[in-house]
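ok so I'm stuck.
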Amino acid sequence: MGLEQLKMNYLVIHKKYGLPSFQEMNEDFHIERIAEAETELLPAEVRRWMWEKYLNYMRFLEGILNPVNATIFIFSIIKTLSQEDKKRISEIYKKLMKEEINVIKLDLEFDEKKEAEFIKRSYKMWQEIKKQLSDVLVEAEKKFEIKQEENSKGYFG
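replied:
not stuck anymore, here's the structure
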């Protein structure tokens, strides 16, 4: 399809349904990758790329909330989280889980208008989640750095 053609096609559905701009969507979801594919169902493809990103974050959050087979990286983050942080992560996860149900329903039967509604609603939700998750991770990073400094003050002689 090509990137310029994708931008033109996206502009049509952007105007028709009041979607976020191509640039906004591309910055958050890298939808320019759609240009590599041929599709007549552009809203469904946009939704698919959005959902791919959400799934990656859901896996990360699942590791924190249920660290059965978690990596050392995840355990190091868990150690820095307060109960409030864990509660915020759980709320973020619930929002994404609810959207997963909507994605499954959209996959069952294509409806351009419903796809567009999902894109708008989900983009707005993502803006909130990004901020919330960023806040939690900044706090975790600060606590991790403090913990590292405390550990490095020990006697090794």
